[in-house]
Amino acid sequence: MNVNSFSELVEISEKTGVPLDKVVLHWEMLDTGNAPEKIVEEASKLLAIMEEEYESKKGKTFKTLVGLTGTNSKKMLEYLPNTIIGENAFTAATIAITMAESNAAMGKIVACPTAGASGVMPGVLLTLEKLGVERQKLVSGLIVAGAIGKIISKRASLSGAESGCQAEIGSATAMAAGAATHATGGTPTQVANAAALSLKSLMGLVCDPVGGFVEVPCVKRNASGAVIALLFSDIAKAGVESVVPFDEVVDAMGKVGRSMPESLRETGKGGIADTPTAKKIVQDFSNKFKL
Ligand code: SF4
Question: Quick check: is 167 in a domain?
């Protein structure tokens, strides 16, 4: 079963009535030889890591390498009662920032699909868990997200160094939107629409970490990814469709990535990394450590 497009998985699921996560498990078994039960077990373990890490890290202060982030989890938890965007979206953002700050402080994370974007998926899944979505449904959402990520890696890239932040935060957001849609009862077509709409909204996002460290702007981009994922999951389940199918959006993202100059692909030389403030931070850091 040589699948290179998400639409093939969606079509099989829609035509046969077999749930999308089961179609993905079958594909994985044929593709990798891994037994479906084993994949479910592994996905459940990954979710457990997200759950345990967030519970042990929420509201904490993190000591990161450059110190450009690490105090935001606490601030956001305290602000929650005042949110204007809504409790669910703000909670997703808070969880995403907590996990991304933990990553910047070398905490335990699930690279989903990368370390820099590791806050997006827990931001979405743990918010759904707080809303009462069954754990087994979250695991099946994670399995569907894995297929979305795998298709992106086959057709384009999941690497900021190769294709900019659209390939990291953008892919994580598409995966999380698909996971949320599947876990909350969306159809396979709606899953594909949620993923396509999310990835389109982050198309062209450059990779521009200050000094090359995964702190600024990375941590806060995880918050935006989690909120965008929930937004487009809702929009897709409302029946709004992506005019351009997911696979074509992925191809477009790959093309955009290949046309990006090197300065915007994790070199720390362009975008936010090229601002006077960023340059001063890097200079001060170099002076401090006599680099
Ligand atoms: S800016 Fe670059 S390093 Fe930071 S999260 Fe995005 S892709 Fe990763």
Answer: yes
- 1 in a domain, yes or no? no
Q: CA 211, 214, 220 angle in degrees (round to 5)?
A: 115
- pLDDT of residue 289 exceeding 90, the answer is no
Residue nearest (by alpha carbon) to ligand 1 atom 2: 207
Report the CATH number that the domain containing residue 96 is assigned in CATH: 1.10.4100
**Residue 100 located in a structural domain:** yes
Cα of 205 from ligand 1 centre, angstroms:
9
Return the closest-CA partner of residue 281 out of 67, 116, 101, 93.
Answer: 67
Q: 119 lies in which domain range?
A: 6-288
Confidence of residue 1 (pLDDT cuts 50, 70, 90): low
d(CA 17, CA 92): 31
How far does residue 271's CA lie from ligand 1's centre (Å)? 11
Total number of domains in the chain: 1
Ligand 1 mean position, distance from CA 185 (Å)? 31
Mean pLDDT for all residues in the chain = 97
Question: What is the rounded CA–CA span in Å between residue 21 and residue 4?
Answer: 17
Residue 158 near ligand 1, beta carbon < 6 Å:
no
| pLDDT of residue 152 exceeding 80 | yes
- Measured distance CA(119)–CA(221) in Å, rounded: 9
pLDDT, one tens digit per residue, over 25-44 is 999 999 999 999 999 999 99
Residue 118 included in any domain: yes
